[in-house]
Design a protein that fits this description.
The protein has a single domain, classed as Aminopeptidase. The protein starts with a strand and ends with a strand. A hairpin with an 8-residue loop joins strand 6 and strand 7. The protein has about 160 residues and is an alpha+beta fold. The chain contains 6 helices and 7 strands; from the N terminus they run E-H-H-E-E-H-H-E-H-E-H-E-E. It is globular. The chain has a 7-stranded mixed sheet with strand order 1-2-3-4-5-7-6, with helices on both faces. Keywords: Acyltransferase, Transferase. It comes from Chungangia koreensis. This is GNAT family N-acetyltransferase.
Length: about 160
């Protein structure tokens, strides 16, 4: 097993895995996010260099799309606490063949290990119980239970970590 920093040589494998997991493309978004301030990404490869999973994020700043969505959902004191010096976890995906082996926890731990921000924030679907359980076991707290970043009938939860 190899843990690497995400680089452009891994983009095709990340695209393929993301498409299998979420049935959509991440390529354009990843290439854009890769240029953001504070971008940090990790990938976990098998002994045969098969991508087991990846996670990435960046410094959350005013003017970014998701930062703006989150800002609208938070009271001024919540914004001050959670978003003014924040690392935004954008994606975490593990190949279904490699789930329930601790890889998501490894990826999240490594992703946040050297982040020099006061807080980290992420969102996940309210009904994604395995993700929520993982994050809660790692010390994440619920910042807001119902958040609708896109489709009105697909609620998300905003979670934060100091």
């Amino acid at each position: 097993m190899k843990l690497l920093k995400i680089n452009d040589a891994l983009f095709d494998q990340i695209e393929s895995l993301y498409n299998r997991v979420w049935n959509q493309s991440i390529d354009e978004r990843l290439r854009k996010h890769y240029t953001y301030d504070g971008f940090r990404g990790v990938a976990l490869l098998s002994k045969t260099d098969r991508l087991k999973g990846f996670a990435y994020g960046y410094t959350s700043l005013p003017g970014q799309y998701y930062h703006g969505l989150l800002a609208k959902e938070l009271a001024p004191n919540e914004y001050e606490h959670w978003l003014t010096d924040c690392f935004e976890v954008v994606e975490l995906a593990v190949d279904p063949d490699f789930r329930r082996q601790g890889h998501a926890k490894t990826l999240m731990t490594e992703l946040l290990d050297e982040v020099e921000r006061k807080t980290a924030i992420l969102t996940t679907q309210t009904d994604n119980h395995s993700a929520r359980s993982l994050y809660e076991s790692m010390g994440w707290v619920i910042v807001k239970e119902r958040f609708y970043p896109g489709v009105p009938d697909k609620p998300y939860v905003i979670m934060g970590k100091n």
